[in-house]
Amino acid sequence: MCPECRSANADWQPVTGRGEVYTYTVVNRPIAAGQPLPTVIAVIALEGSGGARMISNLVGVDPAAVEIGMPVELVWRT
Ligand SMILES: [Zn+2]
User: What are the residue boundaries of the structural domains of the chain, listed by start?
Assistant: First the structure.
């Protein structure tokens, strides 16, 4: 959805997999079985996307070190 006019007229476009933390929260209570705690849930502003954002958890970083504007990169964990 367009954050400016709320239009749903959108399509898929490739992105780089890099972005920056737009906002985040640190979760200290279990969300699901086996979920490591604390977990950082963040809204990521995607690089080169024209303003698209996505929600993800952050891995490989101390939750106390997370900052708005921090650069992040997509990793796949299976
Ligand atoms: Zn719009």
Answer: 18-73
CA distances from 35 to 27, 31, 38, 39, 44 (A): 10, 7, 9, 8, 20
Contact 73, 17 (CB under 8 A): yes
Q: Please give the model's pTM, rounded to 2 decimal places.
A: 0.83
pLDDT digits (tens, 9 = 90+) for 44-60: 999 988 888 999 999 99
Distance (angstroms) between ligand 1 centre and the Cα of 1 equals 8
Assess contact for 45 and 51: CB atoms under 8 A: yes
Distance 72 CA to ligand 1 centre (A): 26
Cβ atoms of 54 and 44 within 8 Å: the answer is: yes
